[in-house]
Amino acid sequence: MTTLLGRFKQRLRRFAQKPGSADLAPYRKLLVDVNELADRFSGLDDEELTAAAAELREKSDFGRVELVEVCALAREAADRALGLRPFDVQILGALGLLEGHVVEMATGEGKTLSGAIAAAGFALRGDQVHVVSVNDYLAQRDAEWMKPLYDLLGVSVGWIGQTSKPEERRAGYAAEVTYAPVSEIGFDVLRDRLATDEADRIVPEPRVALVDEADSVLVDEARVPLVLAGSTAGPSADPALAALVKRLRRDLHFEIDDEERNVYLTGAGSELVERELGGIDLYSDEHVSTTLSKVNVALHAQVLLHRDVDYIVRDGKVHLINDTRGRIANLQRWPDGLQAAVEAKESVQTTDSGEVLDSVTVQALLSRYPTVCGMTGTAVAVAEQLRDFYSLEVLVIPPNVECVREDEDARLYTTLELKEAAIVEEIKEVHESGRPILVGTLDVAESERLSRKLSEAGLECVVLNAKNDAEEAAIIADAGSFGRVTVSTQMAGRGTDIRLGGHDQTDRERIAELGGLYVIGTGRHPFSRLDDQLRGRAGRQGDPGGSVFFSSLQDELVTQYVPDHDEPAEVEDDGRILDLGTLHTVDHAQRVAEGVQLEIHRNTWRYSKLVEHQRTLLLEFRDRVLTSDLAWKELAERKPERAEELDELDEEIRVRAARLIALHHLDQRWTDHLVFLTDLREGIHLRALARQNPLDEFHREAIPQYHRIAPDAWEEAEETFVKAKIDEDGAHLAEAGVKRPNTTWTYLVNDNPFSSGLEETFKSLVKLVRRK
Ligand SMILES: Nc1ncnc2c1ncn2[C@@H]1O[C@H](COP(=O)(O)OP(=O)(O)OP(=O)(O)O)[C@@H](O)[C@H]1O
């Protein structure tokens, strides 16, 4: 029985705990048991160890005893198989994961091993695990690195990347533990959803998702839709229109809103365009939804999307840059019209586009897993979101060795120019001692600019820009070498250790005496979490290290979120601001940015919840059609004469033909429904102005429309059933004018100006509220 004092202590602890965070105390108790048991396991030989793991599989109940046992076994197995004896904190991390938490462990604390111990535990409990990795390179690296541990525990492991072939994917998913980036899993799920044969599906029923870099996947990328498209001829953007908008001048012909998210033609701009297009009326019924929207898209591409910031042009193609990672976002594209407009702007060939067959957001994809857990260096800052969106709690694991990194006070300058001059000066000064410096920039263009300025100042640096992950990993691994200056966009090369003295640690002592790695942030990120991630690259595992951030009042973060800040009261000759009030501006801007993002996320999720619910219901129905003779029965009942005609065919052929027809029309109706929902959502925010609750309105229209899908699909299927030739070779759909997409491809939508109406309205509201 808990004593009164015990209960009081418990309450006190709860009170002191941050909302959304779990208590570490029970895990510490488990750890004591793990350590005791681990000593016993050290006496077993390898075979006995594997056999002990196999015995765990037999247990019907996986409680506290088994949890302790699995960690003790894994501790011994990791020591033998990998030469790494898990630290206590790594065991605590694994226990937290096994209990379904997001564990926060600082950079370099050995999350890969904690994750593998937990994944093996889930597998021995009988649950297949998807370890969601940040990219292909890390999926492969971690799966291969941890394989000997899995082998010794008798657990199978596989990995999947962008270039994996269908049979490799199948093998990857067949393993008990599969390492893969979230996009690859999502794309495979989408492809499976269109399968017309059960045997073509490859992704198993989801059980456990163990997410690496959990905050970035579960929160930052949550709203990113993964899209499966089917081939049709792409909409081509008019190069003449691209040339025309290039001639338009800001503030005369068009205006850009405060947040640089929307661009509008002015009266003079409209007149010029109308004249140049042969005297048309852009706002007439004939042109308003065609020509005018094309002009707007071309203008958006021309003035709001910047080469080398938002995208780069390489090998005659437009490649998007993922703004949170500052790297080429493979397979990402903008919505079709905008993609084509950017291609026209850059005079490169238009890529194929097509019909969106289905899409799923990262959040919806991960919500399918009954168990989600994750690990990251920065979870506490998003604890509220993890709790609200995924019902997850954060468990903070202390570092193995105390962090001794020295984080200097942030330095704020009046202008961008003066800030950059100060950064170059700082690098020059520190570099003289040979202390390695890692400069984290906000985007590729900034990296380029800085590296130019450094070379003008006679300093050599290595720049990491949107290259491939493996190359970047190798470069970043040496960022701790003597005299090295590395300039990198925020997330490039992440997941890779920066060891003092380079990857082989030759100069370790010398570098440690110089103060270890020095991280310089050239600007504050929109989320403090990202600043912490950059900082965390120095001072790993108790190493010495340091960090400092530079910002200016002209930084986008400030101009966008606190445009009406006070003028600084105390400025030095070099432009450095000293008064505390103004220094606080950047923190304030960051908090506003975080608040805006959170509300946008909440709002988007409210809408997507309904779509996801409808998708789940429809998929259940589709599954029944796919795995039974339901389609044949339904169509035969609707068209008995046709069914009779087909009587002489093999039952299997008849059933399969009816199934194919029904699936086709169901899929088509769903595709159309998605278009309907997108249109509805785009227009719905306007209703807020008409004082109707947009979300209620959205539901009111989306629900009846959904209920039309199945009846409409059956009606169309009935027609095809009668019309299409059906013989020993099955249903000849193409001849009946029913076309399934011949090729499909997948992409991530990076920025969707067409569905941002709601977000924009929302942002303006936030601004209004803030200004009061
Ligand atoms: N128990 C251990 N004993 C000794 N070294 C270890 C142990 N566990 C991990 N390491 C080492 O620590 C380093 C960091 O490990 P890992 O990359 O898993 O860290 P991380 O927490 O994932 O870091 P990041 O946040 O950068 O992804 C690796 O070089 C690894 O070999």
Automatic annotation (TrEMBL):
It is an enzyme of class 7 (translocase). It is a peripheral membrane protein. Residues 92-251 form the Helicase ATP-binding domain. Keywords: ATP-binding, Cell membrane, Cytoplasm, Membrane, Nucleotide-binding, Protein transport, Translocase, Translocation, Transport. Monomer and homodimer. Part of the essential Sec protein translocation apparatus which comprises SecA, SecYEG and auxiliary proteins SecDF. Other proteins may also be involved. Part of the Sec protein translocase complex. Interacts with the SecYEG preprotein conducting channel. Has a central role in coupling the hydrolysis of ATP to the transfer of proteins into and across the cell membrane, serving as an ATP-driven molecular motor driving the stepwise translocation of polypeptide chains across the membrane. This is Protein translocase subunit SecA.
